[in-house]
Design a protein that fits this description.
The protein is α+β, with helices and mostly antiparallel strands. Helices cover 52% and strands 19% of the residues. The strands form 6 sheets. A 4-stranded antiparallel β-sheet has the order 7-8-2-18.
Length: 530
Amino acid sequence: MITVSRWRVILVVLAALYGILFTLPNVLPASVRDSLPGFLPKQTLNLGLDLQGGSYLLYEVDTAALRTELLTNLVEDSRTTLREAEIDFTGLGVVNGEVNVRINNPAQVDQALKLLREQLGSAMATGARDVTVSSAPDQRIRVAFVPQALDAQAAKAVDQSIEVIRRRIDELGTKEPDIRRQGSNRISIAAPGESDPKKLQAIVGQTAKLTFQMVDETADLAQAQAGRVPPGTMLIPGDDVQPFYVVKRRALVTGEMLTDSQASFDQQTGRPVVTFRFNGLGARRFADATAQNVGKRFAIVLDNKVISAPNINEPINGGSGQISGNFTTESANNLAILLRAGALPAPLTIQEQQTVSAELGADAIRAGAISLMIGGVAIIVFIILAYGLFGVFAAVALIVNVLLILGIMSMTQATLTFPGIAGLILTLAVAVDANVLIYERVRDEAHAGRTPIMALEHGYSRALVSILDANITSAISAIIMFQFGSGPIRGFAWTLLIGVVTSVFTAVVITQVLIGFWFRATKPKALPIE
């Protein structure tokens, strides 16, 4: 087993070269890295929030508001369905978490039941519909979501929110944000390098739900403000022109139909505006709605607040337009980012906020480097004092191990956190532990009277089983931590997992090759560790 086969030598040389090439950019200045030839690696370690500095936010998805919105939409869908069928009804609204409506004509109750069952809701994975429609006393009909459907919508809202948040942060240019679900309805956001949490909150936390709704010109604004809002309409805050507006609940076009939005300047006034463009469906709906309502006003509503309510002077074709208001250049750019990324399906509430300064991150890097250096030197000194020349071979393998870990993390752009540095130090101890197992087994075989070559071969082969057992259990633990952990726990687990693989390789293969060369050159009568 102690042989210097060609493939082993090639493998060791390639591993050492790989570790050097991919680790080297981390110690080179940025100007030198930029001047390197294109075929050479230039990636450096991706530092985590605790090392680089940045912001951490923990949000909770407001699933209660989501359920309220779903019920409101169900009310409007019921209203539209009954009106289109010319069914007379009263008392349409939400009662105890379900939609309730009374059909005035007893002869139309069965027709209304059939229509509502056909038109409302959609099929779930089980094949059943997500909405139940049932009759009640006094010619009433109850429409309700099944519990599984509401739970599925809440879970879907969290997943959608994660994707929307990711797109928004990517627009900011933040490098490698860590966005993940926590529990059933929470989302954690770690944005390394982003030192302004207020800016991050302004982009992440705004729902950015954009709708285009017709203004109800016939409604009495004073009565609406007193609580007497006409059916099918809603009272919402306005802009500087008008403090409140009564608008139709049914949206003409929604922000989901936008394909692009950009911050720009109005050619006539020179003030910042946001330009937008609809997809094909949105363009057709917008053109039809403006053609049918020439001379009337439509409201551009963002998060239940009117930001502009222009008059429709003529049909607007082409599927594009602009949003004007009291924008600054920054607020117009932020709104464009929000609209491009899409609206959040439900409001977010901030639960926790942390900021790590760049100076504190630099201190953590310095402390981690010192810890790694002290730990590495102590391990190397111990292994050399304990095993002499064989300890030197183990120290060489240890250095290659560190280079491989740093090289792999640089190449894969895995995030290195402060706990990850702890994982790296632990990996060095595990790697030396493998060498200790091998060398102690070799020593036992030599004491049993075997020749040096037989002691080495039996020592490696019999220690390998124990090494694999120990490292496989460590790898399983690391995989579990990486799968179910978050933030620093994942950083620690990823570093440990990489280290387990490289430690087995360096402790077994590299030391075998080095000992093999030494044995071939010296042909010793006794081993230096006997």
